[in-house]
Amino acid sequence: MEIITQWVLEHLSYWVIVLFMAIESSFIPFPSEVIVPPAAWLAAVDSNMNIFLVVLSATFGALLGALVNYGLALWLGRPIVYAFANSRFGHMCLIDAGKVEKAEVFFDKHGAVSTFVGRLIPAIRQLISIPAGLARMGLGRFVLFTTLGAAIWNSVLAALGYYCSRIPGLETKEQVVELAGKYSHEIGYALFAIVLFVLLFIIYKGVKSDGKSNMEIENNNNTKI
């Protein structure tokens, strides 16, 4: 892992970002903190890269990797997915039946929107595409929710990398990776809580509005009678 990480840091480019973010979003474990924050830091200190293109490349790569998981789950089905999770190769990829089941429970609880909010949770991010495939979620909705969630998460990581460029004494990509790894999980959970609160508020307002409309219709009917 250290050799691969060092190679990524030494060869950071838009294509490297796409490739390794696709890997990160598939069933092969590779932390996004090693990719996006140092790339954003590099964009802040080197005019050869653009921070917006960093986020765009990372989001495109994340979508590609998510589509791999989605497609495999859709075509192979639950028995083979769980057999892989329990296999030696699955364990080498840091996957087991418990993690897949956890992702399925999260998907069942939150529905299709879980492919959006799930992209913000460290333990769920890489696996949330699997239950979406197993449930045969519509491809259009899957792509939309996954892209939105990945874009938000990558923007947060890019902002963290950009912030690192303003810290005195922080002068290497390795230092950026260390700092990003230290705070990314806490940021992810905080972001998830904020997004979940907003979604619940929107649902509450929608239910309240529907209840008010139904009451007005009922009152009008009573008035006519």
Radius of gyration from the alpha-carbon trace, in angstroms: 21 Å
Q: Mean of residue pLDDT?
A: 79
Q: Indicate the proportion of strand residues.
A: under 5%
Share in helix = over 70%
Q: What is the β-strand count?
A: 0
The major beta sheet can be summarized as: none
Shape: globular
Q: Roughly how many Å apart are the termini?
A: 75 Å
| N-to-C order of helices and strands | HHHHHHHHHHH
SS content category: mainly alpha
Q: Which blocks of ≥5 consecutive residues have pLDDT under 50? A: none
Number of helices: 11
User: In the residues, how many domains can be counted?
Assistant: 1
In short:
The protein has 225 residues and is mainly alpha-helical.
Description:
The protein has one domain. Helix 3 (36-45) crosses helix 11 and helix 4 (51-76) runs antiparallel to helix 10. Helices cover 76% and strands 0% of the residues. It starts with a helix and ends with a helix. It is mainly alpha-helical and 225 residues long. 37% of the residues are buried.
